[in-house]
Amino acid sequence: MPLRYFDVAEATRLLPRLREMLGALRRFRDEAMLKKTALDLLWQNLERGAPVLGRLGEEQQALDDVTSRLVAVAREIEATGCILRDVDRGLVDFACRARGGLTVFLCWHLDEPAIAFWHAVDEGFGGRRPIAELPPDEA
Predict the structure, then answer these.
(1) Where do the domains of the chain lie?
(2) Fewer CB in a 10 Å sphere around the end CB: N or C, the chain?
């Protein structure tokens, strides 16, 4: 998929929807992890001879269902054109063209009320700078 470029206003308009999608993604991820742990325990019980085969099938189906929902939300996030960097932090980058056509990333995470930082493509989160320092062509 080609890189989508945002300006600050476009990326900002997407934040409410991203907050919802990231919240759902985290919930589904957490639910999938719990179901996987329960499934692993059932497999251990089966290996010890416990009659859990039917339950194992039910739990596998439940895990498959939540995994499908997780994948659907991840695809929905991807379809926005932003780049999900870290599910735990809710870290998202938005490609942006700065002065002279240079590509940079507007950088935001769930705990931030607005897009307040950007970084160069090769710098990542550690190289974040205030949005006020974004070259003025796109700020």
Answers:
(1) 17-80
(2) N
